[in-house]
Amino acid sequence: MVQTRSGEGSCFSRSGQVRLTRRSASPDGANSRLVMKIRWSPEAAADFAGIIEYIHKQNPSASDRIAHSIYDSVTSLQSFPNRGRTGRIDDTRELVLAPLPFILVYQVKRRTVEIVRVLHGSQRWP
What we know:
Blueprint: E1 17-18, E2 22-23, E3 33-34, E4 37-40, H1 42-58, H2 60-76, E5 85-86, E6 93-96, E7 102-109, E8 112-120
Parallel strand pairs: 4-8
Antiparallel strand pairs: 1-4, 2-3, 5-6, 6-7, 7-8
């Protein structure tokens, strides 16, 4: 299981969702704004797990850093869901995770960002 930076919980809830719905700029809730929910497709969750398992076999400490980097990039989509480029498949976006060789393929839906795939840049897509 990959731990979050705070060490509490894992990258996925049992339902595969991250359920942060509001962020506040101040403790009293002033300047609150909605943030998107993140939902991982089964394929994206399998991609992420496979990437981390593969890297862990080669270099355990690198796998932890890469897992956090990918997870942090996904989390950033809560506040900035359109930051990735237009995707190669209709209704998708792609976030290049430079300097890592990975691409997040995702869809922005009403109040949810769905992570569709986590691909190595050398993979054929679609």
